[in-house]
Specification:
This protein has 79 residues and is mainly alpha-helical. It has a domain at 5-56: 434 Repressor (Amino-terminal Domain). The protein has 4 helices and no strands. Helix 2 crosses helix 3 (32-40) and helix 2 crosses helix 4 (47-56).
Length: 79
Amino acid sequence: MHDRAFPDLIRSRREALHLTQAELAELARCSTRFVHMAETGKATLRLDKLLAVLAVLGLGLQVTRTPQLSVAPELQRDA
């Protein structure tokens, strides 16, 4: 992740709830290292663990269609 908004949101929400990284990790049933990686913007994270962390923080993800993106030609199926 190159954008700091998402990792910063995770950290600020955790701090607003007065949780340490270790406490959040315990509640989300993941490692403290994972929480640290989420807060520092690691580009690859396990989605199931990320969703668990967000749930503890009262946050969620929303998937929306992005019209400006298209499927790479090699991934397209023949009609």
